[in-house]
Write a sequence for this structure.
């Protein structure tokens, strides 16, 4: 993974999280009152504008009409000048969780509809042709959104943009659904080749990490206690999200992903997630 306009330490941190990703039980945080506020965004916005100029347009009119490549994220970062509603879901650990801008709910649904039309008739892909860091059309349980932006699993099936993060030994692979922030494990019979044009659209969920905190030097991963502390706090409080650093990662296959380092502070000012983890001995200050 390579980064745009950010220090090399961010590259190492992000790579470690991506390669160490594993399937976990995701807890839905039923709270759509989270706000995001950005302090500095000029470099990121400039990079997005340049990427949008270079991006080839899809031959699919439906895709172009409803999901304009990169324009969505330009609008997203422009909105950072004032608070906007979002939801934090799919917490892997304090170094990897997802922020959902509620304003992108409609685009996510349109993406799934357009991808289904383009991929449903294609033959499944062989496991030998699946590569880590590459996007595929992945079929899994339908993800439908309610009015507050929290998605619910149904019995229906649909196709979603899945980034392969690990190939398993049992004929299955682990995919991160880049528009929903969750990971799924599926067999190759549920994977289709990626249709042209869909790879040029930026991910519609934003991966985040807590700024200034990490695991202890003698640990290999976050403790269950630290993860549960964060999940419990997000259930019990409404948070403001302040973005400290912004990254862009691009895989060897050209998949372009946003990533942010953030501070979570409760809206009533009674707690700050980052410092509380350190003070309670659950994280190391970096």
């Amino acid at each position: 993974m390579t980064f745009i306009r950010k220090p090399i330490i961010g590259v190492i941190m992000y790579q470690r999280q991506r390669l160490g990703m594993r399937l976990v039980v995701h807890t839905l945080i039923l709270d759509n009152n989270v706000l995001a506020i950005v302090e500095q965004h000029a470099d990121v916005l400039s990079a997005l504008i340049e990427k949008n100029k270079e991006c080839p347009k899809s031959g699919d009119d439906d895709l172009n009409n409803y999901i304009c490549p990169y324009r969505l994220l330009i609008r997203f970062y422009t909105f950072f000048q004032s608070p906007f509603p979002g939801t934090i879901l799919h917490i892997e650990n304090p170094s990897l969780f997802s922020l959902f801008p509620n304003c992108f709910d409609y685009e996510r649904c349109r993406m799934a509809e357009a991808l289904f039309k383009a991929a449903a008739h294609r033959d499944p892909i062989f496991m030998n042709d699946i590569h880590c860091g590459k996007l595929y059309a992945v079929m899994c349980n339908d993800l439908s959104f309610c009015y507050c932006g929290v998605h619910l699993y149904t019995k229906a099936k649909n196709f979603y943009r899945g980034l392969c993060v690990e190939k398993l030994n049992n004929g299955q692979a682990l995919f991160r659904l880049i528009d929903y922030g969750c990971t799924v494990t599926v067999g190759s019979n549920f994977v289709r080749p990626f249709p042209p044009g869909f790879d040029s659209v930026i991910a519609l969920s934003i991966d985040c990490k807590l700024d200034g905190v990490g695991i202890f030097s003698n640990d290999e991963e976050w403790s269950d206690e630290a993860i549960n502390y964060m999940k419990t706090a997000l259930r019990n409080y409404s948070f403001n999200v302040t973005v400290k650093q912004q990254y862009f990662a691009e895989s060897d296959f050209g998949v372009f992903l946003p990533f942010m380092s953030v501070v979570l502070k409760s809206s009533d000012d009674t707690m700050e997630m980052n410092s509380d983890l350190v003070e309670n001995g659950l994280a190391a200050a970096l």
